[in-house]
Amino acid sequence: MSQTKDRRGYSEYENLAFHPYNVMLVFVMMAIGMLFFGIMVAFIYTRVENGVMPIRLPWLFLLSTAVLLGCSYFLKRAKAAFESDEPVAFKNSLTRTFWLTWVFLLVQVAAWTWLFSQNLDLKSGQGAGYLYLLSMLHFAHVLAGIPFLWFFLRKFKKQMASEMGGLLFFSDPEKRLQLRLVSMYWHFLDGLWLMLVLFFLVNWLLQ
């Protein structure tokens, strides 16, 4: 990704909201959102038509929600540290986001294991099937984003090792764009997970 200018001196980084990568990510997030929304509508239809009972969320899903909110918090701090040129705070916040993301994934696996121990598998009812489907789809999208976060963090550490690395990193519009994209995707996944948790909680309360 290189900074290019046209004959009038316009830079592709002058308005990050309209950068091709930013626009592409917005369309990707819209597609993901529509996929989840479609499955949720299918669950409601199945519940109304076939009388499928909703499944009660395990407490581990609530714990993973808190962990994911922690990811958003530290990612927001990382962005603030980037804006104020604070390399230590930026590194610490981004590193915590990275490891908390892994904690979230591990808690999700623990939640599925608990469900299986309660004989709530894919064959136990369509309510459980939808819970597994939506949570595993979200798991896959979080997992897919980890390499981008890791490469960005690795690039920062590598550039900071040079004498002028910090100054160049925080003044680089390309890095600003990359941080924007990572933040957008992570906050989107956090919001999506909150919506899923609330969706299943409301369905449980309205049974």
Mind sketching the topology for me?
Blueprint: H1 20-50, H2 59-83, H3 87-117, H4 126-160, H5 165-170, H6 173-205
Notes on the structure:
The protein is mainly α and 207 residues long. The protein has a single domain, classed as Four Helix Bundle (Hemerythrin (Met), subunit A) (Up-down Bundle), CATH 1.20.120.80. Helices cover 78% and strands 0% of the residues. It has helices at residues 20-50, 59-83, 87-117, 126-160, 165-170, 173-205. Helix 1 packs antiparallel against helix 4 (126-160), helix 2 runs antiparallel to helix 3 and helix 3 packs antiparallel against helix 4 (126-160). It is elongated, with a radius of gyration of 20 Å. Residues 1-10 have low confidence and may be disordered.
Keywords for this structure?
207 residues; 6 helices; disordered N terminus; Four Helix Bundle (Hemerythrin (Met), subunit A); 78% helix; mainly alpha
Radius of gyration: 20 Å
CATH topology: Four Helix Bundle (Hemerythrin (Met), subunit A)
Largest sheet: none
> In CATH, what is the homologous superfamily?
Cytochrome c oxidase, subunit III, four-helix bundle
| CATH architecture descriptor | Up-down Bundle
Reading off the top of the CATH hierarchy, the class is best stated as Mainly Alpha
Task: Give the rounded overall mean pLDDT.
Answer: 85
Globally, the shape reads elongated
Structural class: mainly alpha
Low-confidence blocks of residues: 1-10
* Count of helix runs: 6
E-strand count:
0
Distance between the termini: 51 Å
Q: Report strand %.
A: under 5%
* Overall structural domain count: 1
